[in-house]
Amino acid sequence: MRHRLYPLAALLPLLGAVAACNSSSSGEHTTTAADSTTTAPAVDSNAATGTAKPAGPKPAWAPSLKPEMQAVIEKLESFKTPPLHTLPVAEARRAPSPADAVKNVLIEQQIAVPPSKVDTMSKTVAPGVKARIYTPRGATGPLPVVVYYHGGGWVIANLDTYDASVRGLVEQTGAVFVSVAYRQAPENKFPTAHNDSFAAYQWALKNAASIKGDPQRVAVVGESAGGNLAASVSLMARDKQVALPKYQVLVYPIAGYDLNTPSYQKNAEAKPLNKALMGWFFDKYLRSAADGKNPMIDLVHANLKGMPPTTIITAEIDPLMSEGQMLADKLKAAGVRVNYKNYDGVTHEFFGMAAVVPEAKQAQALAASDLKNALK
Questions:
Q1: What is the tally of structural domains in the chain?
Q2: Pick the catalytic residue: 196, 318, 322, 370?
Q3: Tell me, what CATH number does 58's domain have?
């Protein structure tokens, strides 16, 4: 069964166990992913017992790959999906994701994961924009609120793909999370996802009390394209004189439009994200190359003064590592307090894989600790 992609029915007990890819989708289009008011049996990805083991040698493009990360990559490659940048968007959205790979690893290697303790419901937060609200089970408010933006290059993936990242952070912070299903490209070009993200943030400020939240304690978190969106929301809040997030966590954010940085060159052939796929994402989302120079895309060259305190997490084997590090440096130079941490031996999308990858568990703990300190 090593190269089998399990059917959905076999995976239901593990839904929510892992987050994953901004390089593929694990279900419906993002704009419909939040329609369900419940999530089928989910698990606490931070309390898995067992260790994932790889089967073969390390790939040539990642000689430093950690064993648990390698096990996930091997499973992802076993699905034999053509490179996503060669597929029509609809097919890329349906392709197996790293989240699917982790679910398969959990089953095949018999790694036990206990049930999640998080409740969910769906809300419409702006015209055409839904969100999934995650609440710690049994919690009484008012709780801190975190607005979360998933990855996918503004093109693919959905709330389900990144469910485990959110669940892990909810359980470790005790906060209410608002996970935003912003509209995606190419149907909705720049700056649609950015405007949707800001509208969702404003909704959270105005409606925090209705979801057991405290409007005075609101932060933003995002992964990859979502990290770009989270930072852009902070920029828009500053410029529009809306209440700033108390904190922002940016996980391997898209922070520039330069596809020739040192990490792009070193990790041009990496998986699940590589240089070709990033070019495809930009082509689908941006209206023209001029948009790539917009401060909301090219964060490393934006005016960053007055931004909220920030945690930036990057991965060694990731084309986006250099720009994440550069964004940390630029924020510090602008007088912003920054906690920057790079994790060796892991790839883009590792953050949501705490059920399998130890570095993901460490990264989630770091993010949760910084959020708790900022929102207490």
A1: 1
A2: 318
A3: 3.40.50.1820
